[in-house]
Amino acid sequence: MSPFRVYILGCGSALPTDKHNPSAQAVEVRERMFLVDCGEGTQLSLRRMHVNFNRIQGIFISHLHGDHCLGLIGLISTMNLADRTAPFQVYAPAEYRSLFTAEMDFFCHDLSYEVTFHPVDTTVCQTVYEDSSITVVSLPLDHRVPCCGYLFRERQGRPHLRRDMMDQYGIPYSQADRIKAGDDYVTADGTTLPNAMLVTPADRPRAYAYCSDTRYMPGLHRLIAGVNVLYHESTYAQDRADRAGKYFHSTARDAATVAREAGVGQLYIGHYSARYDDEQVLLDEAREVFPETFLTREGMVIDVE
Amino acid sequence: MSPFRVYILGCGSALPTDKHNPSAQAVEVRERMFLVDCGEGTQLSLRRMHVNFNRIQGIFISHLHGDHCLGLIGLISTMNLADRTAPFQVYAPAEYRSLFTAEMDFFCHDLSYEVTFHPVDTTVCQTVYEDSSITVVSLPLDHRVPCCGYLFRERQGRPHLRRDMMDQYGIPYSQADRIKAGDDYVTADGTTLPNAMLVTPADRPRAYAYCSDTRYMPGLHRLIAGVNVLYHESTYAQDRADRAGKYFHSTARDAATVAREAGVGQLYIGHYSARYDDEQVLLDEAREVFPETFLTREGMVIDVE
C-alpha cells in the first residue's frame, strides 16, 4: 500500500513556545503531499522533517486565526526563492481572498510559479478537492470565526489480481483490467473461472480527519464515522472546561467523546494550551473515554492504517 | 552608564535555515527597548533571549521584504494574548500602511493595547523618533524596494558632578542642576569655584547604526560617521559580487569599506546568504579592509561602547 502519513509540524496553540510550534501538518497520501494549516515557522518545521517543499501541491487552511496561517506567505515566498515551477493551490475560508491577494501582491509578486486561491465555504460539508485517488471534504466546525476541518479519504481502489491464478491458467496480462473490473475469465477450453477466484478484495480505503479548532460538536461524529485516524484539538483538560466553552475550544474529554462516537481507529490530540507543562493530564483524561488516544508532538509521523 | 545593547534575534537572509533566522534585532538603549525588523519566528527568538515583550515599545522596519517583517503580525497578536496594555509603535515604510491596516483588521482586531503606524519616508535622512534621551534617524539605503536603515543615538548628556568637590566645599545638592548646566559656584566666603573644577565631562553619546538591506552606497559613511557599532549587511563574499550587484546586496568587502570610510568603532556583519556553510570567508574578507569586524550570530548580545 502506498504510504498515508501525517507529519506533525506544529501542535501547540496560539502562544508559540520553545516546546510547540503553532498548528501545521503535512499529509502524504497516494504520492500526493498537502499541508493543513501553516502557523508561523512552518517552513522551518518542514525543513527539519525533511519534507521536500516541491512535493507540496497545496494547502488547506482551517480558519484565519494567525496561529493557523501566518506562515503561509513566507512559505510561498521561500518556494519562489527555491525556483519552484509547479503550481500551488490554496484552499481557505472565502473571507481570506482579498487580504491574501493583497499580501501576495505585496510580498510575492513575479513568482516563478502559479498560486491559485480556492475559496472554501466553511459552513457546509462538501468536496473541496478530488482527483483519481483521493477526495478532501470540508467539515464545518464550531469556532469563534468561520472554520472547518478537512477529511482526506482514499477512493475505493480495485481488487488485486491473484498472480498465482493468472500464471496457473495462463491468463494474458491484457485481461487484467477487465478482471479487476469484475469480469470472469473463460479459458481456451471453455471453462469459466469466476471473478472471485481471480482476485483478492481491494484495500479498504483509508481516511484521515483533521478537526481544529472547535468546541465539542454533537453531530461531528457522523461526518467522520470510522476514519482510521482522527486529529482533534484538545486545548484544555476538563479543569478548564469554562475556558474551552468561552473560547470555542475542546477539552481532552470532548475530543475523546467525538472519537468514541465516530468509532475511529485512533485519536491524536494537540493544539495544547501553553498552560499545560505536561500534556499527560490531557492524555489521561482522553484515554478514560477513548483508550486509543495519543499525544501529537513536533517531528512525529503518523501512519494512517 | 545605562546599557546600550543589541540583541541578535536573526541574522540570516531570505531563506530560513536551521542555522539562521531571518532579520531581527532588539535594541536596548537608556531603559528603552525597540525592535529593528521582524522576520518570521522573531517572537520565538525573543523568548529564547529572555527579552520581555512588554518592554518593547515599538519597532522600526527597514523594508517590506518578507524576511524583514513577516513576524510582525504574529508578534502583535501574541502580545495581545499576553494581555499587553502599553501602546506599541510601528515605524515602517509608508507603502506598508494599507496592507498593515488590513492585516491588523483581520488578525488583530479588539486588541488590549493600541498600535500606531508611523509612515517612514525611506528616501530621506530624518529623525523618525526622539525623546529626552535618544533619537532614531532614518538612513536611506539602496535596495530593490524602498528601504532605510536606522541610526540610534543617545542625546548629549550633562556633565557628572564631582561628589568629592561637593563634599569638600559643602555645596548643597540643590545646586546640582545649575552646576551640571555649567554654572560656577560661589562659596559663603565669596570664593568662586569654576565649573570645570566641579564636574567631569559628560559621557560621549553612543550610537548604533543598522544598515540592511543595501548594495554598497558611496555616501552612506557620511551619515554614520564615528558610530560606536555598525551593523551592515554582508550577504555575499566578493566571489559573488555579481549577485550582490544584481540583487542590491553587499559583499563583506563592501560592508567593511563603509565601516572604514565612516571610522566606526566596530563592524558587525550579517544577513548571510544560505550559500555559505561557513561564514569565516565573509569575516576574513571584511577584516582585510576593516580589522574590527565581527560575525553576528543568533543569541549574541552586542555592547555598544
Set down the secondary structure blueprint.
Two copies of one chain form a homodimer.
Chain A: E1 4-10, E2 24-29, E3 32-38, H1 42-48, E4 56-60, H2 66-69, H3 72-81, E5 88-93, H4 97-107, E6 115-120, E7 127-130, E8 134-140, E9 148-154, E10 160-161, H5 163-168, H6 176-180, E11 185-186, E12 192-193, H7 195-198, E13 199-200, E14 207-211, H8 220-223, E15 229-233, H9 241-246, H10 252-262, E16 266-270, H11 280-289, E17 293-295, E18 301-303
Parallel strand pairs in A: 3-4, 4-5, 5-6, 14-15, 15-16, 16-17
Antiparallel strand pairs in A: 1-2, 1-18, 2-3, 7-8, 8-9, 9-14, 10-13, 11-12
Helix pairs in contact in A: 10-11
Give the oligomer, counting copies of the same chain as homo and different chains as hetero: homodimer
Using only C-alpha atoms, the radius of gyration of chain A works out to 22 Å
Cα shape of chain A: globular
Q: Given the helix and strand composition of chain A, which structural class is it?
A: alpha/beta
**How many DSSP H or I helices of chain A?**
11
Q: What is the typical, i.e. mean, pLDDT of chain A?
A: 95
Q: Would you identify the CATH H-level superfamily of the largest domain in chain A? A: Ribonuclease Z/Hydroxyacylglutathione hydrolase-like
Order of helices and strands of chain A: EEEHEHHEHEEEEEHHEEHEEHEHHEHEE
The CATH architecture assignment of the largest domain in chain A turns out to be: 4-Layer Sandwich
What is the domain tally of chain A?
Answer: 2
Q: Largest interface, and how many residues on either side? A: A-B, 30 and 31 residues
CATH topology of the largest domain in chain A: the name is Metallo-beta-lactamase, Chain A
Beta-strand percentage of chain A? 25-35%
- Distance linking N and C termini of chain A: 10 Å
Helix content of chain A: 25-40%
Give the total of beta strands of chain A: 18
Return the CATH class of the largest domain in chain A: Alpha Beta
Q: Please outline the major beta sheet of chain A.
A: 7 strands, mixed
Strand order of the largest sheet of chain A: 6-5-4-3-2-1-18
Low-confidence regions of chain A: none
